[in-house]
Amino acid sequence: xxxxxxxxxxxxxxxxxxxxxxxxxxxxxxxxxxxxxxxxxxxxxxxxxxxxxxxxxxxxxxxxxxxxxxxxxxxxxxxxxxxxxxxxxxxxxxxxxxxxxxxxxxxxxxxxxxxxxxxxxxxxxxxxxxxxxxxxxxxxxxxxxxxxxxxxxxxxxxxxxxxxxxxxxxxxxxxxxxxxxxxxxxxxxxxxxxxxxxxxxxxxxxxxxxxxxxxxxxxxxxxxxxxxxxxxxxxxxxxxxxxxxxxxxxxxxxxxxxxxxxxxxxxxxxxxxxxxxxxxxxxxxxxxxxxxxxxxxxxxxxxxxxxxxxxxxxxxxxxx
Length: 320
Ligand code: SAM
Ligand code: SF4
Known about the structure:
The chain is built from nine helices and twelve strands. The chain has helices at residues 57-69, 88-101, 116-126, 140-146, 152-164, 184-193, 220-227, 293-299, 304-311, and strands at 25-29, 74-78, 106-111, 130-134, 168-175, 197-202, 233-235, 244-249, 255-259, 272-275, 280-282, 290-292. It is globular.
């Protein structure tokens, strides 16, 4: 499928939320499908959305262009698994035009890495410079079990391909009690030795996965205490406008992030919005502000309705 890029609108007023924070970062889910079934994310027998409720790639492209014209400078493509969406590269290529004009400073993605060995070189050619890859364990059997059938060798060759292509890689590791708890130190050392950053993520109780996740909840404060027995962690003031807090690991020289989504300790610095694969715009992770961009984008070929819809959501007061 080919995406016909519509000419970008003249720059519209920038998106500013109710607190005067300008929105510069957009996360877009390009599919709800995935080739894995991680126990904390999906149930074994997932029911996916019917295709008419999914945005087409051309619609995603239009929505992204509208956000770019309103001041978004960074776009992250995610899913489900973005690389299972047919013709994903057409979308990435089309979005690459905003990198070339300089309107976008970064186009990136979060992937499970299983198909990276096929995509990495092309992504780099399009202008992607760094990617996040999810990998919760280095143990092949444990990986198969957590992902319900995934093969770690595919991810490892994907990581090799990404680094060969010059992409900077950050590993996302969901901390799971009794599963990868004992591997954290090894994973940090492994990632940093390969010049990859690593970010630990606390599990969130999202959706029905067919598993009781209360047993698996592992607070990152516990993980941090355990890591501090092996490493000196120097706090960094780096902020990406997102939910991660960072430290430098003195022994490895690498950067380590902590994402504790439920603590909402990041609202004040947040510059992000996200669009689901059905076109729902969420203006905040922790609040229930939603707008239907699919209806807006389908309402007409002109982008007026889309721009009106984008401008609609307002953040509520961040919790202290
Ligand atoms: N499939 C891609 C991947 O796994 O990287 C992109 C989508 S996935 C939903 C994005 C990130 O969300 C991954 O790093 C994944 O580990 C994390 N994630 C999924 N379910 C989660 C949960 N219940 N709690 C915390 N993080 C979760
Ligand atoms: Fe798929 Fe990513 Fe969810 Fe795992 S975390 S099931 S790879 S979408």
